[in-house]
Amino acid sequence: MGVEGCTKCIKYMLFFFNFIFWLAGGVILGVALWLRHDPQTSNLLELKFEGTQAPSTFYISVHILIAVGAVMMVVGFLGCYGAIQESQCLLGTFFASLVILFACEVAAGIWGFMHKDTVSKEMINFYDFVYDKAITDTIMEKDKKQAASSALKVFHETLNCCGKGQGSSFLTKLTDIAGVTDVCPNTGFISTSCHKRIEELFSDKIYLIGIAALVVAVIMIFEMIFSMVLCCGIRNSPVY
Questions:
Q1: 57, 107, 219, 232: most buried by Cβ count inside 10 Å?
Q2: Could you tell me which residues come within 8 angstroms of residue 87 by beta carbon, excluding any fewer than 6 positions away?
Q3: Contacts with 47 (C-beta within 8 Å, 6 or more apart), sequence order
Q4: Alpha-carbon span 214 to 136, nearest angstrom
Q5: Pairwise CA distance, residues 25 & 74, whole Å
Q6: Terminal CA-to-CA distance of the chain, rounded, Å?
Q7: For position 139, what pLDDT does the model report?
Q8: Which pLDDT tens digit goes with each residue over 194-212?
């Protein structure tokens, strides 16, 4: 091919980073699909009670992540092919795609940071709504009370918790023992607050998304630099 010296080194470095970028896209796609179908989150986010659906804000982020992973794999392949073929057209298209992806990632990161507590708060509010219906609404009809208890038990068994806090956990367990309710997991006395478990569940997953986005952003910056250097080297090469 036409480029020589340092530019040739840049060419192979760009190919290497693009290959890593392509792999990262595959990893992000795999992680996003896992988050989408993870039993813990799926059991909670697919709950419905009295026409109220569990909040789907978390799934919006996951679906965006799936799209980003798929696009990254396509763009990564484009960059690898463009670097090997020393094509200015492909490298220019690759650079433009990276700029757009990077801008979208920054915008998504800002949105995620501003709404990082929204997912857990929405889910806690939904849990409280179901909990109050199942435990404290004594005038509820029996079939509706059973529906509330079933929805509440999904929360408790999925997260291995019972009640809003220490006090409600103790009272709920007592009502289970007395036969008034049947909502706590049958794994002994559980005092873990469901509020705490919900926050831990979604916080861990949001941090995982954030780490993946940060790693990808660093790779993107290097790729944009290398692609422009290589494109300029090809343009200045006497062979072209």
A1: 219
A2: 81
A3: 53, 54, 126, 130, 151, 154, 155
A4: 45
A5: 9
A6: 10
A7: 42
A8: 888 888 877 777 777 777 7
